[in-house]
Amino acid sequence: MADIIQLLPDHVANQIAAGEVVQRPASVVKELMENAIDAGGSTVKLIVKDGGKTLIQVIDDGVGMSATDARLSFERHATSKIRKAEDLFNLNTNGFRGEALASIAAIAHVEMQTRTEQDEVASHIRIEGSKIIFQEVAVGPKGTSMMVKNLFFNIPARRNFLKSTQVELRHIIDEFQRVALAHPSIAFHLYNNGSEIFNLPSSNIRQRIVNIFGGKTNEKLVPVQEETQVVTISGFISKPEFAKKSRGEQFFFVNNRFIRSPYLHHAIVAAFDGLIKKESHPGYFLYLTVDPASIDINIHPTKTEIKFDDEHTLYAILRSTVKHSLGQFNVIPALDFEQDQNLETPYDYKNKSAHQPGVIVDAGFNPFKEENWTTGGRPNFQKQSTKGWESLYVGMESQGNKNHEFSSVSFESDTITGSIFDDSKIGVDSVTTTFQLRRKYIVATIKSGMVVIDQSRAHQRVLYEKFLKNITVKGAISQQLLFPLSLTFSKSDRAIIVEIQENLTTIGFVFEAIGEEEITITGVPLSVPESGVSMILEQLISDYQQDFVVDGFSQTDVLSKTLAKSLAVKTGEMLDSESQLALVNDLFACKESQLSPFNKSIYVTITESDIDKKFM
Ligand code: ADP
Ligand code: MG
């Protein structure tokens, strides 16, 4: 039998390859836009006609190409982005296969004009079905303009497969948005049939999202931020109440490349579990940065699927990071959204009855008996009821709220927040023994091993949530001072106190009078020592000035943080075992027990198997 194997001519090979790379006009849009970005452009314009069927043009102001490169760029496997296989493991560019232009030129009419900084003239090339029609010099700006006309002109079957102009345009817009979201610092424009659809100035991620999806999006976004050895995560998730019936705004970017990952998507869905209805979909814009060597982008010709070395770890990190952001958002009620604060309180006050105002007097109380007090400025963690502390405090409700019926208020977010942290608790229900390490850490045993807790951060967290809760439910207990305390402040400081007076009152400060410069205080929050009042107020004022507080939300937040910071036990303080135990239990009763109010880790767990490994 005669030999029958032949090498396919280039143009046929290119057409076959094109089938992989170019499914529809949107694929061309993606490849051309990615090339424009790889070329370092600061502005990228996309112009389409008839859903890309008649024209797709991408114009950039990037590095451009020399005359030789311009010609070479249409050859298969022609790329400036990698030279050897190892380069694949350190990729910073969108493209690397050197296939896109060759493929596109095989199945369309392509016209390119390009000029580098150094060259005085531009190159102008026309290619139709892989055949060079002409290459000439031209006058033009630095950068590249790539025009793709009559896609699939030589493959009628493919051309007939294209959907309606509307559908193809929709795909183009999707692709455009993904690229634009991945590169917020680059300006993008999109024109369809002569009219502008998007005009996106160079911006940050949040502004880019808002510019694409509309001004209302801004208030829906909850920031996400996490840095670990494996991955850095940043971006935004949508608040649960804005979850959509249709899948829509769901974006993963890995090293600035849009990717699809059903597996990682599942991690997000899992984090939202219980917060949104089954049939609705959470929105997210998440940017993952990983070591390029730890991923394989090569597995899919259009590169929207990638393979991670350690997908399981990534899944876990992603899920807990998103959960954490949701938790942060729920812990701190949305006071800045013009809503009744009480309606939004996430704390478990639903079942508590209304707090009756009134003074409880303990006839046998001796205020000079030291042990009834907190010792050495250190709060006592014991439950008040066991020590009859109530005698020191005046049950208090703030201004005009005397008849407020807490029990009649529905607390909508209770169920939501209740479910967030349930399974992230580390099983500390059974903590019975603890010990203190170097007056800094508290060590406790848990189901899986042990937990080492930073005492100061833990206490900050406990106090922070307590103060937040007090502010939001307005049921704080005030501790009456034996003698009114007069403090003097500058005019500007005084103005700040007046501004935040309402919140100060809700957490337990009682002002007798606020004069020109003097402020008289008759009551302070529980656990604030009298000697510390002046320092705390000063700290508050300075935190306010620095934090640029503009709304109720940040006001309560700053207030609670300041108090927590000032009052928390410090490193170096010795805690008796009762206090240690109470602190541990209080910590794990918190809505968020992993991070301090200042986003520092509160504890680490060391599992039994961690320890076992050390003995191997
Ligand atoms: P790849 O992007 O995978 O390298 P392409 O076929 O998309 O392959 O492009 C081939 C080469 O052409 C690129 O490596 C690059 O050097 C050059 N090129 C393509 N588009 C542009 C552009 N807009 N500006 C500058 N150079 C470009
Ligand atoms: Mg490319």
From TrEMBL:
Domain DNA mismatch repair protein S5: 209-327
Keyword list, A-Z: DNA damage, DNA repair, Endonuclease, Hydrolase, Nuclease
SMART domains: DNA_mis_repair (SM01340), MutL_C (SM00853)
Single GO MF descriptor: endonuclease activity
Task performed by this protein: This protein is involved in the repair of mismatches in DNA. It is required for dam-dependent methyl-directed DNA mismatch repair. May act as a 'molecular matchmaker', a protein that promotes the formation of a stable complex between two or more DNA-binding proteins in an ATP-dependent manner without itself being part of a final effector complex.
Family note: Belongs to the DNA mismatch repair MutL/HexB family.
Designated name of the protein: DNA mismatch repair protein MutL
Taxonomic source organism: Arenibacter antarcticus
